[in-house]
Amino acid sequence: MNMIYFLKDYQEENFNALSKARLDAEKIMIKNGCKELNFYLGGRKIYYKSFFKRRNEKKKLKSGDTLLIQYPYYFKYWESFFNTIQELRSNGIKVVALIHDIICLRPYEKPITMNDEVKVFSQLDGIISHNEHMTKLLVESGVKVPIYNLGIFDYLSDKFDMEIVDDFKNINIAGNLVIDKAKYIYLKELDDVKTKISLYGVGFEKEKVLNHKNNLDYIGCFKPEELGKHMKTGFGLIWDGESLDKCSGMMGEYLKVNNPHKTSMYLSIGMPVIVWSKSAMKDLVLENNIGIAIDSLKEIDETLENITFEKYKEMAENCRKFGEKLRDGYFLGKAIEKIK
Question: Residue limits of the Glucosyltransferase 3-like C-terminal domain (predicted)?
Fold first, then answer.
């Protein structure tokens, strides 16, 4: 019987949502019958001292088996691992990558081009892409291997349903709050927005805030799985860039193909979301009636004013049901079934 293995990731526990996404993926893979393969990552010294352990791990793989890896893989191991991929594929083993990020579309320290990434993906036997928008971009860029759409990232956590109250016309922003990542929350133009905004995350630079009407309330920094205990009600906002008018800059453009992990976090606690009207998440949000889409943050007051409590309760109930799927690992589990 052919087996599906996954390559164990190396991540330290912290407040980073990306590490949670990768650790959640491992747990879901195990739940779906995948077996762990350990290449002993955790620093260059450990990696090279573990050569023989790694060789023994590779012997577990048989022709016809599949190895799931999480991409991006670690740059400092990539050359060695690239050779391993070719070795495994020559022995009849399929290698499929779950994409967390497309590196060339984000501001990384060591930028690479789309052509570089296409070359990497072309050495695989399959890819799990975020959504149909990312898949379209990959195909148009020259990727020819089979691609499976994830839809949205799962979010494993304890059951925590948000309280539904009639004081819901406020927004929550969670994530990296440094000015280079979330410049829009520091802009003077935010003075014109009356809606209360609660902030959660690392890097908030209060002294750089240019709006002074005190509609920003910094709550604090919490581990991803604990955020839901601190968010009381309202909507979760998914926005990036340097403008209130649209999601701008490199990170804003990335929303056109990306599944932000914070979307899954909000929905996992039953919180409706607000997304940019040109974002990749818009289709899923509107089709499932789990939030709203806007063109500009300058619309937020009027948009929320026109949402009745009955409408909000309907969206929140849909989010509660949708959140159950996310907490159960439904979406990655469905993708793994397609690979089998």
Answer: 171-338
